[in-house]
Amino acid sequence: MLEPERVSDIVSQHDAYWDSRRSELRELRNLYMTRFWQDNASTMLDGILRTEVPRAYAVVESFLGSLFSKNPSVFVQPDLRARGNPEVAEATANQYLLNVRAQLEDATRLALIYPCSFVKLAPVESVDPLKRVSCSALPPWEVIVDATASSWTQQRYVGHAFLMPLEEAVVRYGRGEEDFRPRVYAKWIESADVGGKNQSLGLDTSSAAPTSEQWIRVVELYDMINDKLLVWSEDYRGGKEFLFEGVRVQVGALDEDAAADAETPDVDLEHETTGIPYKNASGSPVVPIIPVFFSSDPDNPLRGYSLLHRSVDQFRELNVIRTYQAQGVRRMARQWMVRAGFLSPDAAAKISQGLDGEFIEVDLPPGQSLDGNILPVPNAPIPADIQGYALTVEADIRDAGLLAPFTRGEVTKSTATEQNLLAAYTSSEIGRMARIRDQAITSVARTYNIMLSVVLGNDAEPLALPNPVGPTVLSADDLTGDFTYWAVDAGTTPMSDLAKQAALERLTPLLAQLGTPAEKLLAEIVRAYQLPESFVAAPAPPAEPAPEQPADAPLPFPTEV
User: Fold this and answer.
1) What residues does each domain of the chain span?
2) Which pLDDT belongs to residue 415?
3) CA-CA distance, 561 to 313, in Å (whole number)?
């Protein structure tokens, strides 16, 4: 098992790596937030009114809109050994994905701006069994990875470093307040690149007001080799001992009375395990942290590469160019050179105001004219080369795959050539990213069901699940099958959907001629165009023929003559 000293070394290496990249990360953040000049005001274009172009924001949000044009959902393939209930597992997973869509979008946004991001699932107390697992998006500098591993599944350890209020730590881990060394919280990415010890960790150690809220930094480290969950903090007894080993999980039902009275919960909150409680069908530990890597360092697969970083130089140049253009426009404002003392203050004010139709009286000595006394300031026009350079920079960004027509929403053109070009782009850049998105979605769904089976314990909960399951009784046995999870319409994007719809329109007449049943064609049209399922009505059962009556049989009802 990893010892506290080894955990301390792992955390130090993690911090040193991300400290070396903090300036880069801050610049990426500022580009996205249209705050580029915030860190560059003193080094570029001193004394000039600066203008920014929200290009990085547009790139990120257009990709995000494309990747989450529909609600995430999965299809669950049954266990080959017929264990569990795939319909129930699918319904619980899809309800969870719907509930945490915002968090999944947040994680995707982080992965588009920064080198990568992560999704973390964690057990929480809730009356609703389906909400006993929380979901949060994590930036890359909070997640500790085994940088020596060649893939995510081959890591020896995975960790999460985060800040926790001192009061919460005392309650959660049952330790005395005197054993902690709390500090004052400061955002890691906003803090200076230099400072005192642990400043880089997001903890400002320079000064702490007595009334300031106190925090500690907690590290949850999943030891995959020894199947242990280790909780460590440098702020607990100097990091010489583990703060906690294992995890406490709410197991069983939590009724409303218990939820109102947290001190007497009707639940086994003392259920703890030093090992990782979440296991897959083969018994291997499952870490509830899911990576989102849209690009990786080829020499270090667990170090990501930011989408924005491809064109960070071009984003800089666009802001500089637009600033020079804005400055040139301001230089073209009306200005005059006037002989000293020639204009009265009132006349000068009227010229400055520039009111249409204004008469300005000027007292001229006999024989003197206005010539040579008042002249417009000559201003050179903005060179055409600047606009040409701006177009070149825009082209560089497009060549990087960041400004393709699809990502700008330009999918209204419908010629065959244009559709083929857009579909080709879909199958390459955005299509590749959609497949990575689907991998994250399926991992979240699978991990959630594994965790839900743990928190349910031996209890069975009556629930109303989404169709087609509906009202049912949920138990851990329903979720413990060796299921295979598939993202619905894997790799789909608005452009790929458009291409499918166009292909269906071309093929439908041919399929009808070949004898394809109309109800099957209708079902495919409903799926392709995401129409309500009510469009596909269940076929009415064939009417049973009435039994033949013998000729002399009495009529089924009396008749009047």
Assistant:
1) 4-307+428-487, 308-314+326-355+372-401, 493-534
2) 52
3) 101
